[in-house]
Amino acid sequence: MRSLLLKLGVVVVVIVVIVIGWQNRSTEPPVWTDAEIDVLRSLSLASLPALPPDPSNAVADNAQAAAFGERLFFDPRLSANGGIACSTCHQPARHFTDGLPKGQAIGTSKRNTPSIVGSAYSPWLYWDGRRDSQWAQALSPLEDPNEHGSSRLQVVAVIAGDDAYRSAYRALFGEFGDISGDDPVALNNAFANVGKAIAAFERTLLPVASRFDDYVDAVADGNRQQRESLFSDDEVWGLRLFIGEANCTQCHNGPLFTNNEFHNTGVLSSPGELPDKGRVAGVQEALADPFNCLGDHSDDPARQCAELTFVRTGPELIGAVRTPSLRNVELTAPYMHKGQAATLAEALRHYNEAPDAMIGHNEAKPLELSTRELRQVEAFLKTLTAPSVPNAI
Amino acid sequence: MIMETTAFRLFLSFVVSAFFSGAVFAHGGVVQEDDLCVIKVNYLRAHFKIYQPRVSGHEQFCEDLPAASESVFVMEYQHDALKGMPIDFRIIRDVTGKGRFARMEDIEQIDDLGSATVFYQEAVIEPNVFTVLHEFSEEGEFIGIVSATQPDTSKVYAAVFPFEVGFTGVGYWPFFIVVLLLLQLQYLVMSGRLRRWTKGRWSRAASSLLFCALLIAPAAPVSAEDGELRVSYSTPAGPPEINRIHSWILHLESADGVPLENATIEVAGGMPEHDHGLPTQPRVTKELGNGDYRLDGMRFHMRGYWEITVTVVTAEGSSVVLIPLHL
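ok -> C-alpha cells follow
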C-alpha cells in the first residue's frame, strides 16, 4: 500500500515538473517574414502620417493659440469651485490620464479618463465618440456638473477678466462682443474660441518613440545584434501573437495602435450601473452637438466634414466604445471604458475569454491562448512605454 | 436504484413545470424557446436576459436568479415596433399567492400595487435596447411586469413573469445533482457554447456554400441586351489606407464597354470574416459623366479582406456587383 502511494507520489511530482518545464520552456524567437515586417512597419511611429488638418478650427496650428490653450488647460479657475483644471484628470505625468477607474473632479465622471496624446488623429472624441473635434470636446467637461461644473458665461468671464488672457484672446480672435449673456451667439462664439485654443495645445501632444519603435527599425535594417538586445524572446513572441493569433491588430492598428473606431468587446457593466450603450447613443449626441463640424461655430467655410456627413448608425453600435491607443498602456491603468480591468493581465484575460456581451454583440472571439502566451503579449505591450512624457511641463 | 427513481421523478417534475409555465404565460410572459429566452409582450417579442454581474459575471439567467444582488434586466427587441413604444418595468413581491402561476388578472386584483412594488422604471421610449437595474435586498418570490403602450391606439400590452431570487426550499442532495446537471446544461446553452459549437459549423458550411455560389454566379446583367454590368473603381488620393476617410471614383459600363449613365447606386461593405460592416456610410454624391460616379465617405478600419457591394439601379433593372479588396 505504502509503495503504491510512493509510486503515485513520484508520478505526480514528475508530471508537475514536466508541466512547469513546458510552461517555461525556452523557444527560439520567430524569424519575421516580409509580410510580418510590413505589418511591424505599419505600427511604428515612423509610419505616423502628418497631423490631419482640422479646418473647423482656424487656430489649430497657431503657436500662440497653443501657448494660450496650454495655460487654460492647467487653469483651475475654469471650474465651479476654482479647484478643477483639465489637468486634474489629464495629468501629464500619467500620460494625461489619472490612474482611476473613473475621473474624479467636482463629482465622479461618467467614464475612465482617456489619454489626450495623439487624439488629434481621431475623427471622434470620447469613448462613445459624442464629439467630432478636439475643440468641441474641450468645451464639454467645462459645463459637465461632475467635472468642471462651470458655465460658458463664467468661463468666458474668467478670460475677459484676466489681462494676459484677454490680450491673448484678442490677438487670436478679435473683440469678445457682448459676453454678458444677453447675446447668446456672441457668448457661444467666445466659448467656442476657448475650446479652439485648448485644442491647439492638445494637438501638440504627440507620442514619443518607444523601445518597440527602435526594435522595428532594427528588424527593418536587418540588424540582428541590435534586434536581440532590444527585445527579449518573450517580447518577440508576444509581438508575434499581437499581430497574429491574438487578433489585436484588428482594432489596435496603425502607429497609434488604434483605429479610433467603435467596437463592442463584451466588457462587464460597472458596479451599480447599467451596461453602457456606447456609440449607438454617442453618435446621436455628436450629430446634435451645436459645436460640431457642421455647426455655426465651425471655421470650415466649405463644411466638408466627411466623417460627420458619412457617419454610420445602427444596432451594431450598441455597447460599442472607441478603441484606445496602446502607447504607454503599461502606465495608464485601469483599463476599459469604466476602468473595469485593474491590470493588463486582467484586460488580456477578458479578451482571451471573449464572453457574450450583456447588450449588443461581442465582436471578439475567444482566443484560447495559454497563460504563458498571455504573459508574452503583456510583455510585448510593455515595450510600448515611451521613455519620456510628451511636452513635460 | 431508489436514488435514480427519485432523481428521475424530480427531473420529470422540472420538465412538467417548465411546460406549464410556458403554457400559462404564452400570451405575455417569459419563455424558453430553443436556446433563447424570450419575453412576449402580447405579439411583440424581445430576447430577454438577466445578469447578476457582481456575483455571476457574464452568466445569463432567464427567470430565477441565484442571489439577492445587483441585477440587470435586458430586452433586445425582435420586433421593431417596440423601438418606438413607451415601455415601463415593474418588479413586485409576490403578494398574489399564485407563485409560478400568477398572471395579469392576478396583478390587476392587487389593491395596493405601490406597496408591493420593489422597483419601478417609468415608461420610456428606448430605441436600441431596454435595460433596467435593480439591486435585490432580500431573497424571495417576485413578479416582473413589463408594459408597452402602442402610441397610435394607446393600447397597453403587458407581460407578467414570476421569478425567484435565491434558491429557496431546496430539499436534499439528489435534488442538487439534478439542479447542477441542469445548470451545466443551462450554462452550455446560455453561455452560447452549445450555440457557438453548432452555429460555427452551420455558418462555416453556409459561408463556404455562399463562396461557391459567388464563384459560379457572374455579375448580374443590367438587361439581357446590354450583357453584363462591369464596375471598376479608382482612388484619386492614392491607394486606400486604413483609418483614413477618402473618396472613390466608380466606373460603370456594360460588358461591351458602353458607360452607364443616370444610375442610382447604393454602396455597402464589410469584412465577412469578422462579421461587421464598414465604419462609415458611404454615398455616391455626384455623377461625373462617362459612367463615372464620385463615391464619398469610404473608410476602412482594419487590414484584411473586405467586400464592397455596389447595387446599381437603372431604368432597365437592377444588379449587384461585389468588389473584393485585400488591405
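The beta strands of chain A are 262-263, 321-322.
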